[in-house]
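Sequence design from tokenized structure. All designs in this work follow the same two-part layout: the structure record, then the generated sequence. An example of the structure record is given first.
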């Protein structure tokens, strides 16, 4: 048993300093509060080391679910890629296409209780309390279809000697943003610019999948090879040793199943009762072989939109 006692905040000290200093002192004290505040405090210590005080040859992978790109956390992720604070990214299809879509049209704040049927009649999609007009997806189709045509043409020219992987498609998506006015807001763009690999093991599970299907239905012969990315991800196993996992799900499992990490911070709203690796505890991950016994892990039970800015804000 630890000899450390639970301690609360000294509000007299917090009120005696400026707001910025008070915020940092407040967050840095979380580790001594108990319950999830302690988990946030421990996670912050680890994330600070990963991003701003890492050792030589320490590399960090960012894994996130698509809703975190739809919301304002996208700006935080973009900052990390722009400043080369992460060295690899893995997400679901929505976590890629929604990033690009935001360069083409705005996402609006709405409410959770809006009438879904009425929104559909108005041509509006709802993601939680976020609203995305159908026009944004039309703009995305105009952007994505020429990219597919170019990829298909290269495959035909090489007689399909080398097929295209999802990460190669994402690289081309970043490159295709060069002429977009809002490109510097994009995570995909900065990953392309800084040669940060972006993996999406379920590329077809989204709007891109629909477009790829309909393109291949009419044109025939375009091949996307996800196995190339499995080999590419596993080739990084000696170069990547830390992971920030936000939201769990397929991106989390795909990352930890292919690379053995020394340090992992996970923020999730999932519960162990789900009985799946998306939501389980780290002890279950160790049992499944996703984590080594020596891996340093911190799991925060909470909403990443609230928690991660506290973890990533530099001391």
């Amino acid at each position: 048993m630890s000899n450390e006692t639970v301690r609360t905040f000294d509000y007299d000290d917090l009120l005696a300093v400026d707001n910025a200093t008070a915020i940092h002192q407040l967050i840095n004290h979380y580790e001594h509060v108990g319950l999830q505040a302690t988990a946030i405090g421990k996670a912050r210590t680890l994330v600070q080391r990963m991003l701003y005080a890492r050792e030589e040859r320490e590399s960090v992978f960012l894994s996130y679910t698509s809703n975190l790109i739809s919301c304002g956390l996208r700006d935080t992720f973009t900052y990390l890629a722009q400043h080369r604070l992460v060295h690899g990214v893995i997400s679901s299809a929505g976590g890629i296409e929604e990033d690009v879509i935001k360069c083409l049209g705005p996402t609006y704040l709405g409410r959770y209780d809006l009438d879904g049927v009425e929104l559909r009649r108005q041509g509006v999609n709802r993601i939680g309390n976020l609203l995305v007009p159908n026009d944004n997806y039309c703009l995305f189709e105009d952007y994505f279809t020429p990219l597919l045509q170019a990829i298909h043409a290269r495959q035909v020219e090489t007689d399909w000697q080398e097929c295209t992987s999802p990460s190669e498609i994402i690289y081309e998506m970043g490159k295709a943003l060069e002429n977009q006015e809002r490109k510097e807001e994009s995570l995909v763009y900065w990953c392309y610019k800084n040669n940060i690999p972006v993996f999406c093991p379920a590329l077809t599970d989204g709007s891109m999948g629909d477009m790829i299907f309909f393109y291949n239905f009419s044109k025939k012969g375009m091949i996307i090879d996800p196995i190339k990315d499995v080999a590419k991800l596993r080739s990084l196993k000696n170069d990547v040793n830390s992971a920030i996992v936000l939201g769990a799900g397929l991106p989390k499992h795909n990352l930890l199943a292919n690379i053995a990490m020394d340090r992992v911070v996970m923020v999730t709203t999932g519960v162990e009762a789900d009985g799946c690796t998306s939501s389980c505890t780290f002890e279950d991950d160790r049992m499944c072989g996703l984590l080594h016994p020596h891996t340093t892990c911190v799991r925060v039970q909470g909403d990443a939109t609230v928690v991660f800015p506290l973890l990533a804000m530099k001391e």
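The mean pLDDT is 90. We note this feature because it recurs in several other targets discussed in the main text.
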